[in-house]
User: Fold this.
Amino acid sequence: MSAVTATDIVKTFGDVTALDGVSLQFEEGIVYGLLGPNGAGKTTLIRVLATLLKPDSGSAVVAGIDVVADPVGARHKIGLAGQSAAVDEFLTGQENVEMVGRLYNLSKGEAKRRADEVLERIHLKEAADRNVGTYSGGMRRRLDLAASMVGRPEVLFLDEPTTGIDPGSRLDLWDLIEDLVAEGTTLLLTSQYLDEADRLADRIGVIDNGKLIAEGTSDELKSRLGGDVVEIHVEEADRQGAAAALRTVSGEEPTIERLGLSIPAVRGSRTLTEVVRELDAQDIEPKDIALRKPTLDDVFLTLTGHMAEDQVSKPASSDRQGAR
Amino acid sequence: MTTATKPRRRMGLSDTLRHTAIMTQRNNMRLLRIPSLILFSTVQPVMFLLLFNYVFGGAITTGTPAGADQYINWLIPGILVQTAVFGATATALGLTEDLGAGVIDRFRSLPMARSAVLAGRTLADLVRNSFVNSLMLVVGFLMGWRFEQGFPKMILGLSLALLFGYSFSWVMATIGLAVKTPEAAQSAGFLPIFPLVFLSSVFVPVASMPEWLQGFAENQPVSVIANTVRSLMIPEEALLPLGLDQGTLIWQSVAWITVIFAVFAPLAVRQYKKAVG
Assistant:
């Protein structure tokens, strides 16, 4: 059975078209990753599917229920963890989760049992009786996730679950989400990070300017991108020489990146070795050289012709993986 | 292809009441966990009480009726109304904080009655106001305040002040949800409050004001409520020179409370839908 079926959803805010006819469908028991830069429409789509926003047109069915016609019915079947950890600092972790449980119409006793259960699952049992004010950012995100799970939702929406938390907590959260998936929870998550979607999602939809511009498994998308690249950063004075060196290795014109130049690593790490040798021969010392996986930039560059950063103020380097 | 089932579920009254109770409890638990909030929500009205009684009180005698010759007896009923109205700003602050923290989004994704968010907030503020105003009476008593018409009428007066504060919470909810940030809510909330509280009979008799001001000052809701509470606490004969009648005042107070609630509760609900949609 299909977990989410969205058909031709349009949502505008004044002059801004946030969603410009988005359709997507996926079945139960999988993780669907919605990938895109800030302002692409990811959050708006989640808010429509989670009954927080009414679309201007189009329809959405979640867990068998039309979210526009029967939002109350749909709310019994969904869980939402929004972009900011929506937890109350002045209550304890246990109280936060129990309150949400009781708002799902669980009895006091049930809500308590269920809160114990999810807090255990999310590794917050020990901190359960502490005020959330004392929690780290990662712990708050986990608690938020616990709260979204307490009503045993059939479909769970996670809006950028790891944005703004430290790398260690990010890995913890990934493990946790993988556990959930192993237990059969259907998940729709949004992300700005290709590696995150790559690791967690069974299927990925790429969204840009309110449109779904590509869809498929991670491998399918990557094959459209063409695999790893060698990227070098050099002094401005060395740019001409470096471009020539890369041309020698790849036999084609290098791609101009934000901070340097790149060529496809058609022979994997051997391409890297060849580039190093060629640069050395021309006496050019690169400031940085890396064999890297395609990034969100590459996805966007390939699919749309513009970089994700055109719309995001965040520095590109934080998305990149360095030399392996 | 999925076929959507359409069992339109509506919230029953018992669900709404239960959810409202949970929200009220949540907001009050927050209050108890933030000692500074309790402290400042009580210290400020106590300061007003001390300031007006001991600093300005000596100078304010013009027009205070005979039976209320002690300024504290004039002041306390006014302070109860002032505290309840000032306390209503907490509604605007609380809602904007929840809005900013994404907590309201969480609530809206839950199968709970939507009205419970606003009702729980305003009721929690009513509980807090009740506590603060009871404390005002204790402090007032220590400063020499006495009620002259018996306990039931004193409680009726206190209740009217609190109910007025409750209906004013919905005004504040409307303002808070319109401006959306706690900082703006703080400033915007006081815009209607200052003229209403200070151009009134709360602190001074209206007769002491310039004539062009008296029309407004005498008939605006804060004065009506303050006069009503006063009429239930100071000796009955003291009211006569002011041309005020207890029965009429109570009737007018109930009317104001009802009208403000009836106008602003729907406005607040509409603003809530706009703010979160």
Remarks:
- Residues 225-319 of chain A form a domain with the Alpha-Beta Plaits fold (CATH 3.30.70).
